[in-house]
Design brief:
CATH class of the largest domain: Alpha Beta
Mean pLDDT: 94
Bound molecules: fructose -6-phosphate
Helix content: 25-40%
Structural class: alpha/beta
CATH superfamily of the largest domain: Aminohydrolase, N-terminal nucleophile (Ntn) domain
Strand content: 15-25%
CATH topology of the largest domain: Glutamine Phosphoribosylpyrophosphate, subunit 1, domain 1
Largest sheet: 8 strands, antiparallel
Strand order of the largest sheet: 3-2-4-1-10-9-11-15
Low-confidence stretches: none
Number of helices: 19
Distance between the termini: 11 Å
CATH architecture of the largest domain: 4-Layer Sandwich
Number of strands: 27
Number of domains: 3
Radius of gyration: 26 Å
Length: 609
């Protein structure tokens, strides 16, 4: 949500800012703007709508010359999307410009204070309060003024600040909202996401909460909350630029679906050595693992669905109770996190605000927190006791695909690692699962090769306006993700139900022509799944079934449409089963002409509550 880019150097800033903002478009936004120092004053250009509108307004940047500037894509929180509410927001003199991600919670009181001092306001934003307050405290030393403001504002924020009085520098501030500094030669950058920097530099500094940084052409100096200089580690970003480009595909989502086998290889192969699971820098001792009495999995959205699969699979192999909680619920329910409880946090972005808050709460309650995260150096990764990266590479499409499958794979590895130490899995089964994990990428390739079958079914059913996903056990958890994929990108209403629950109410919604996606991959419950298919068919439903090769024949006679996946160990079935569901949602959305990579109302990383 929202994007920040800043540049100070010798090149023209505006084209660099526009390009950086383009790389952040995937995060979701409703307006955009830039502020550039043109040698005499700050020039600000802002526009509601797509970045192209802003780009046209400033002729691709040519209309605002200058070598230092800040840019922003805004997702409205305080004040409707409009030119005036877009960022940068400027102080009354027009000499201080601010871009901001996050929310200033006490902005109303601060605004009132400034209004009482006679400060006029132009916008409805909380961000303008920051710009005005900096000016209020500014008496020739910008860093001091920003420091004073930070002691007064509350909330979550990443800020980029430019002042016409010291136009050779940018100030960056971070609290609970990501901000990364990029180091170039004779130029430096700031951005809310590494994808905005990667074309210019791979050397980055991850700012910590409460830190400030002053960027000039020559270098970057970071400071703590008390404005004392701090030395920062420089990290190298090693993924390729192509990873954040479409590479000939029509949509990022399709590219990322197709990338899954490769992403799985990266997540799994280095972690299996000599027939054992190897987890890098794993900070949990064997004694700790043996003392475990309960595992909480905490996450949002699709990451939560990974947790739902994890509940079934981890309980099966560990014989330890696993409770899955939506992060937004966990944080407000006074959770019982006692001794012997591990909190497992799952997040692609590593920045989801609710998940972050739940993590902090769990730590406060004394739990060890282990996170499974994709974005390296993200807040959740940094604040966890132990982090396992998914190594899926940048995920740009709003609807997650490769992050989901790699999260599952890492969770499976973790389950095996724990099971080995707890002695809860027979040697033979342990090795059978490991073997299947190694075969998973190739089996996934087989599923992807048959994508035209799924495209065909999408062409048959894309007009249904309500779809039910049913399944039991792991198939139920899988259905939750299939249903979310469909609704978020195709805007079709869909629900996932535990198939055994149908009779308890939902079946009344089934009528002639209702589409039911029946998930029947789990061998142990296949007969029950068949019964449910018969049940909905006899009420007139069209049934699109998903099962394994082994059950193809049995299902063929019943379902109107049939998708099969290769046989594998039950624990890994959702990893294969989710791929046709992702493809199905993708093709349906394509046929309905939806904006697949940027679905309405959604943002890639939800950094507000
Ligand atoms: C759905 C989707 C979201 C995210 C959720 C959590 O396709 O992408 O439901 O899974 O917002 O995000 P992370 O995993 O970044 O914490």
């Amino acid at each position: 949500m929202c994007g920040i880019v800043g540049y100070v150097g010798a090149q023209q800033a505006a084209p660099i800012l526009l390009d950086g903002l383009t790389r952040l478009e995937y995060r979701g936004y409703d307006s955009a703007g830039v502020a550039i120092y043109d040698g005499a004053e700050l020039k600000v250009a802002k526009a509601k709508g797509r970045l192209q509108v802003l780009s046209d307004l400033i002729q691709g940047g040519a209309a605002i010359p200058g070598t230092v500037g800040i840019g922003h894509t805004r997702w409205a929180t305080h004040g409707a999307p409009s030119d005036v509410n877009s960022h940068p927001q400027v102080s009354r003199s027009g000499r201080i410009a601010v871009v901001h991600n996050g929310i200033i919670e006490n902005y109303a009181a601060l605004k009132q204070f400034l209004v009482d001092q006679g400060v006029p306001f132009a916008s409805e934003t909380d961000t303008e309060v920051v710009a005005q307050l900096i000016e209020y405290f500014y008496h020739g030393d910008l860093l001091q003024a920003v420091g004073r403001v930070l002691h007064r504002i509350q909330g979550a924020y990443a800020l980029g600040i430019l002042c016409a009085d010291c136009p050779d520098q940018l100030i960056a501030v971070r609290r609970d909202s990501p901000l990364i500094l990029g180091i170039g030669a004779g130029e430096n950058f700031l951005a809310s996401d590494v994808t905005a920097l990667i074309r210019h530099t791979r050397e980055v500094i991850y700012m910590e909460d409460g830190e400030l940084a002053v960027l000039t052409r020559e270098g970057i100096q970071c400071y703590n909350h008390f404005l004392q200089p701090v030395d920062k580690e420089i990290s190298h970003v090693d993924w390729e630029i192509d990873a954040a480009e479409k590479g000939g595909y029509e949509h990022f989502m399709f590219k990322e679906i197709m990338e899954q086998p490769q992403a799985l290889r990266r997540a799994v192969f280095p972690r299996i050595r000599d027939g054992e699971v190897y987890l890098e820098d794993f900070g949990l001792s064997d004694a700790y693992i043996r003392s475990l009495r309960k595992i909480y999995i905490v996450a949002c959205g699709s990451s939560y669905h990974v947790g739902m699969v994890g509940k079934y699979s981890l309980e099966r192999v560990l014989r330890i109770p696993v409770e899955v909680s939506l992060a937004s619920e966990f944080r407000y329910r006074d959770p019982i996190v006692g001794e012997g409880t591990l909190v497992l946090v799952i997040s692609q972005s590593g920045e989801t605000l609710d998940t972050m808050a739940a993590l902090r709460q769990a730590k406060k309650l004394g739990a060890q927190v282990l996170s499974i995260v994709n974005v390296v150096g993200s807040s959740i990764a940094r604040e966890s006791d132990v982090v396992l990266y998914t190594w899926a590479g940048p995920e740009i499409a709003v609807a997650t695909t490769k992050a989901y499958t790699t999260q599952l794979a890492v969770l499976d590895l973790l389950g095996l690692y724990f099971a080995r130490r707890l002695g809860t899995l027979e040697e033979e089964e342990y090795h059978a699962i490991l073997q299947e994990l190694l075969l998973l990428p190739a089996k996934m390739e087989q599923v992807l090769e048959h994508r035209e079958d799924i495209q065909y079914y999408a062409s048959q059913y894309f007009n249904h306006d309500s779809v039910f996903y049913i399944g039991r056990n792991l198939d139920y958890a899988l259905g939750l993700e299939g249903s979310l994929k469909l609704k978020e990108i195709s805007y079709i209403h869909s629900e996932a139900y535990a198939a055994g629950e149908l009779k308890h109410g939902t079946i009344s919604l089934i009528e002639d022509g209702t589409l039911v996606v029946a998930l029947a991959t789990y061998d142990a419950l296949f007969d029950k799944a068949m019964n449910n298919v018969v049940e909905v068919k006899s009420r007139g439903a069209d049934v699109l079934a998903l099962t394994t090769q082994a059950h193809r024949e049995a299902m063929e006679t019943l379902a109107s449409g049939l998708i099969t996946i290769p046989d594998t160990h039950p624990m890994l079935l959702p990893s294969l089963g989710v791929v046709p569901l992702q493809l199905y949602a993708y093709y349906v959305a394509l046929m309905r002409g939806c904006d697949i990579d940027k679905p309405r109302n959604l943002a890639k990383s939800v950094t507000v509550e």
